[in-house]
Design brief:
heterodimer, A: mainly alpha, ABC transporter involved in vitamin B12 uptake, BtuC, two-stranded antiparallel ribbon, 2 strands, 70% helix, 3% strand, globular, B: mainly alpha
Chain lengths: 379, 308
């Protein structure tokens, strides 16, 4: 043990050390995501090499060719919309230090209940069928987020674990519904609901593409969240609670109310994302509503610095990663999971780069280091 | 219920509780040193996929188990580099580890989905295996079940009687005082994190080599998270980890039991049972806030800044 500790200390801790900055660096706060993206791209190039591909062709296939025509750009919006909605909600939670990991489950419940509502009313001929389905989906997401909120506020239960567990419950409920009560009776026993008709389908906002109204919901949520977080007292309270919960309590803020507020808003937005997926590009309830949008939204929220504008950009990037993964599978025969691998790396690099916001790296001259690398004197 | 059914249920309970036991033991040690690693799910997945690939390619199951543990350790080193080396937020780093592990395991495992593998076979312990009920339940299992129980005993003895065990606890309670006493806080935390990685990797390898000998994307199905809840359930006490692991193991095979008894409930609905049980147990145990505060290591989740 002492040998290992000496090794660690000599090689690592003494050769460079972290020195707290007197003030957090605002420049690095915004530079860190860029740095993380560059590092991810470099690692991506290495992965392409490992897989026996030309890295430049790989990166081009992954990040340029998916959006080199107008259809691709529209698809980018289709994929970004659900993550944008979820990440806006998550950012509101994370600002207040509420670790909601449950956007995926809230999204699935929105899709499930929204689809159920759509199936109930789609033959009624009412003008409000779509609105009803959208409201039902959002409300379902909200109720799903109410569970961890109640448990945290009144039973002191850690919201990370409860929201994760509820994600798995929601997924199984969805599977139950498509295999059981919501299965299309005329569907040759496929685990799918009946196809929605036009009265419960989101309108397309760009002709000849799949780009639907869901993106508008996302952009609206972005503007609303921006106002909420930077211009209202609630937004300020959320921030204070997040930075120092006891300071918030001392100022008389109602922490429990804020927990309800943040989680319910997030649930409603994620639910809206879910119902927008089934009434938008998917058009029916199927077992695979989301390729992990709710989890990717966590990365989007952090990459976007918990700021609505940053999140919008980050959601486009994450959508591109999804599309690149599909493109890499079709054109280069790479596993589809390379997309999730890129997402994971991005979050890791981001956390590492974020250290630079609060600390600066000091390279110390140790005997071993100076002897081995005389060139490092200037650093 | 006849005695044979009960025996079968208990046998399956011990089996499905074993990966939870392994992962939770690793996390308990980690948390007792003051580090909260939420990346169990990612480390498990990497252990599962690495163990499967190595066993499949070499035909050697033992090698697969070791490779799974090595993969878990490698993942935990990544966590340590960020959370201990760079003092990043432990919650965010753990989440990143889970997301990264899910992606990486799916990526490297793509070619191995659905490949057949003869899993680790049961090892009957002479004499003991013939005891009615207890024999089949405890002594006709596969070797990893026995290893898990031995690790449990070792960890219990470590904390109960050994000086290093006391050191880990002291560091988890108050790292500043521990530093003042000359204890190597960061080194101990590194070792605890790596032990957690090894156990999570072993738990993952148990899934892909013994429990269901195959690889499927995301095959851990939240077991890493359940193991994390189990640590809270056990109130950081080693003995209760075993109780919890078997209880959660029972919850996760309940759907088989109920279906065997002729209940015609959708298997998807029954599959929610372990997750719901986890929530219920968490609620019951956490509702007494002062108790949790008393039992949890004081410095849990807080980065340590050695002031030099």
């Amino acid at each position: 043990m002492s040998l290992l500790s000496q090794c660690l200390q000599n090689q690592w801790l003494s050769s460079f050390s972290l020195e707290p900055r007197p003030q957090e660096s605002q420049l690095l706060r915004y530079l860190s995501p860029v740095l993380a993206i560059v590092l991810t791209l470099l690692s991506g190039a290495l992965i392409f090499l490992w897989q026996g591909q030309d890295p430049l062709i790989g990166l081009h296939t992954f990040f340029i060719s998916p959006i080199s025509d107008s259809y691709g750009l529209a698809e980018l919006g289709v994929k970004a919309a659900p993550m944008l909605l979820c990440a806006i909600g998550l950012a509101i939670c994370y600002r207040a230090n509420i670790w909601n990991i449950g956007a995926e489950g809230q999204l699935l419940m929105g899709a499930l209940v929204g689809a159920w509502a759509a199936l109930q009313v789609m033959d009624s001929g009412s003008r409000f069928s779509l609105t009803f389905a959208l409201l039902a989906g959002s409300f379902a997401g909200l109720l799903w987020a109410l569970i961890p909120a109640v448990l945290r506020n009144h039973f002191n239960t850690n919201e990370i674990l409860t929201t994760i567990m509820l994600n798995y419950v929601a997924l199984n409920l969805l599977l139950w519904a498509v295999h059981g009560p919501l299965k299309d009776p005329n569907g040759f026993n496929f685990p799918e609901s009946a196809l929605f008709n036009d009265s419960v389908t989101l309108p397309i906002i760009l002709e000849d593409t799949r780009l639907h109204l869901g993106l508008m919901f996302g952009l609206l949520a972005m503007v609303a969240a921006w106002v909420l977080l930077s211009r209202t007292f609630i937004g300020f309270q959320l921030k204070v609670i997040g930075m120092d919960a006891s300071a918030g309590r001392f100022a008389g803020y109602k922490e429990k109310k804020l927990v309800y507020f943040a989680l319910l808003i997030c649930g409603a937005l994620a639910g809206l994302a879910g119902v927008s997926e089934v009434t938008g590009p998917i058009g029916q309830l199927v077992p695979s509503i989301s390729p992990g949008y709710g989890y990717a939204a966590i990365i989007v929220a952090f990459l976007g610095r918990l700021h609505p504008v940053g999140i919008t950009l980050a959601s486009l990037l994450m959508a591109l990663v999804y599309m690149g993964g599909e493109m890499g599978q079709i054109d280069l025969g790479l596993p589809l999971a390379i997309g999730s691998l890129f997402q994971g790396m991005l979050l890791f690099y981001l956390l590492a780069c974020d250290v630079l916001i609060g600390y600066r790296v000091r390279i110390k001259k140790t005997v071993a280091a100076t002897a081995a690398m005389p060139a490092s004197e200037g650093a | 219920m006849d005695i044979e059914l009960i025996t079968n249920v208990l046998f399956a309970m011990v089996r499905s509780g074993t990966p939870l036991l392994l992962v939770a033991l690793g996390e308990v040690v980690c948390e007792k040193s003051g580090v909260l690693n939420l990346g169990q799910e990612g480390m498990m997945l990497m252990g599962a996929v690495t163990g499967f690939i190595v066993s499949f390619s070499t035909g050697n199951l033992a090698l697969g188990v070791i490779a799974g543990m090595a993969a878990g350790i490698a993942m935990s080193v990544l966590f340590g580099a960020l959370a201990l080396g760079l003092r990043a937020n432990q919650v965010a780093t753990g989440l990143a580890l889970t997301i990264f592990g899910a992606g990486l395991s799916a990526f490297v495992g793509t070619a191995y989905v659905g490949k057949p593998l003869t899993g680790i076979e049961a090892l009957h312990i002479p004499l003991l295996a013939d005891i009615p009920v207890l024999g089949p339940v405890l002594f006709q299992q596969d070797p990893l079940v026995y290893i898990a129980l031995m690790i449990l005993a070792a960890v219990w003895l470590f904390f109960r009687f050994s000086r290093p065990g006391l050191m880990v606890k002291a560091i988890g309670e108050n790292p500043e005082s521990a530093t003042a006493l000359g204890l190597p806080v960061l080194t101990v935390r590194w070792l605890a994190v790596m032990f957690g990685g090894a156990m999570a990797g072993l738990g993952g390898a148990y899934l892909s080599l013994a429990y269901t000998p195959l690889w499927a994307e995301g095959m851990t199905a939240g077991r890493g998270w359940i193991a994390l809840s189990l640590v809270v359930f056990a109130s950081w006490r080693i003995g209760r980890v075993l109780l919890g692991a078997w209880l959660f193991g029972l919850a996760s095979i309940m759907h088989l039991v109920l279906q065997g008894m002729g209940w015609s409930i959708s298997s998807n609905l029954l599959a929610t049972l372990p997750y719901l049980a986890t929530i219920v147990v968490l609620v019951i145990l956490s509702s007494n806030a002062s108790r949790i505060r008393m039992m949890a290591p004081v410095s849990l989740g807080k980065p340590f800044h050695p002031s030099t």
